[in-house]
Amino acid sequence: MVTVCIPVYNGHTFLERCLQAIVKQTYTNLDILVVDNQSTDDSGALLAAWAGRDRRIRVVVNDTNIGLVPNRNRCIALARGEWIKFMDVDDVLAPTAIERLLEAAGSTYRMAICRRLFFYEGVDEAQRILMEREVRRYEVRELLPGRTYITPDEVARLALEYRGRNFVGEPTAVMMHRSVFDEFGAFNEDLVQIPDLEYWLRVGLHTGIAYVDEPLSCFSIHNGAASAANLALRSFRADRVDQLILLHEYLYNAYFEPVRKLAEAEGLLGELRADFRRRAVRIAVRAALDGRSTNPTVRDHWTQWRIVGQSRPHMRPLGDALLPLAAFVLHTTRVRR
Fold first, then answer.
1. CA–CA gap between residue 24 and residue 3 (Å, rounded)
2. CATH topology for 2-229?
3. DSSP 8-state assignment for residue 24
4. How far apart are the first and last CA of the chain?
5. Digit-coded pLDDT (tens) for 275-319
6. How does DSSP classify residue 246?
7. CA-CA-CA-CA dihedral for 212, 213, 214, 220, to nearest 10
């Protein structure tokens, strides 16, 4: 059995298209799990109607809105299948997607991915061209042409050489054996923009990745997408803190030891550590200064920074507890001037 995990929040606009793509899969032994994160639109009524027509569909409603990444983890916890196929509500799958991914994984591999297409809705031409240029150049078929399997060593090399670039793809392009989650844990809920990339690397560094060079998934890019919804946080959490957390994992997480070994062998480990320290100091100072802002969202950056740093002491520069005081003095000096 394959569980298709669909986290949903206010997805009524896309649900019909999404579910049609799943129920029409050529592989039919499916557990279709939709976890509604307290939607306020008509998603609930539409889901109830679908569940009444197809007994493979299960609908679970969270008691409260727990956020996107925790909801993805809840989907995994509730899954019944031997395999877990990720699916975002605004994306679609080719009819043969699950069948082909299972064939690629066979009895050997525990992680399988496919090539994806992009579907643009309400996105201007300049954004579309930028997206195509930036994403296509980091696809597996460009980096490792003609391959059907990426070895763990190759995952480590790509992770080091293209740090922060998601060469694996979005969740809709990925399927994993459920044993992966028992061995490597769940998605990192401290990450805003790249929890999928961090997890693909965490796993792929040890299991390798089966690759199907066929466009079996279609990733939707529109102003209501999760990535667009994160734009308000992008300048601080997504663009700054997320990348620092990923670098922290490279340097200190046991699962990322293959990346460290490769960096050391190529004389890059010291450079990575120096980059990590510089970034940590810059972000801590920025967060402390933001803590003096009159904008509540910006002012909350210091609190967020302290939260993500609690379990990662390496991220906190020496004397960072004094930074708010320094920011206060600097702010007061500027006001007096």
1. 15
2. Spore Coat Polysaccharide Biosynthesis Protein SpsA; Chain A (3.90.550)
3. T
4. 68
5. 999 999 989 988 888 888 888 888 899 888 888 988 899 998 776
6. H
7. 90
Both tokens assigned to 105? 């994984």
Q: How confident is the model at residue 326 (pLDDT cuts 50, 70, 90)?
A: low
This prediction's pTM: 0.91
Q: How far apart are CA 88 and CA 192, in angstroms?
A: 16
Contacts of 58 (CB under 8 A, 6+ apart): 31, 32, 33, 34, 51, 78
- Tokens 């059907």 correspond to 148
By CB atoms closer than 10 A (0-12, 13-18, 19+), residue 71 is buried
Distances (CA, A) of 324 to 93, 241, 328, 329, 331: 49, 18, 6, 9, 10
199: left (phi over 0), alpha (psi -120 to 50) or beta: alpha
Residues 238, 166 contacting (CB under 8 angstroms): no
The string of pLDDT tens digits covering residues 184-205 is 999 999 999 999 999 999 999 9
Q: Give dist(CA 264, CA 267) in Å, integer.
A: 5
Identify the sign of the CA torsion 106, 179, 159, 233: positive
HSE value, Cβ hemisphere, 13 Å, CA-based, for 286 = 15
Computed over every residue of the chain, the mean pLDDT equals 90
* Residue-wise pLDDT tens digits, 82-122: 999 999 999 999 999 999 999 999 999 999 999 998 888 77
Residue 236 has which token pair? 């601080």
